[in-house]
Write the structure tokens for this entry.
Amino acid sequence: MITHLDHIAIAVPDMEKAIKRFMEDFGITFEGTEDVEAAKTSTAFFPIDGTQIELIHPLNGEGPVAKYLEKNNNRGGMHHVAFRTDDIEGDVAMLKEKGYQFLSDAPSPGAHNSQVIFIHPKCCDGVLVELCQHSGDH
Ligand code: CO
């Protein structure tokens, strides 16, 4: 079942500039960056009030975030909302049963040693929704 709002992800064309904004201008604690090879995405996390802002940027200029930025004329934007679950396989099965479609057949590795899967935005009023499970959360 879903237990937390894990993070809100923002796609950014200039990671360094965006990190500076959140850290220096907004004064939010910067936890660090992590490259997620499986998702061809570079990430930066800002924990705040029990959840996190995740900045995402293409890793080596390719992958889903590169496509997103291309479509948006290289402007950034709100990319996805991630809910944390303690049983990702069970929730995927339950949601498939209800007719939800996913962007992949099975969860794949995400940041922070997690497993992640995305629900198709057409099933969620146009919002890309990620389900993630952190190791040790089950
Ligand atoms: Co995410």
Q: What stands out?
A: The chain has one domain: 2-134.
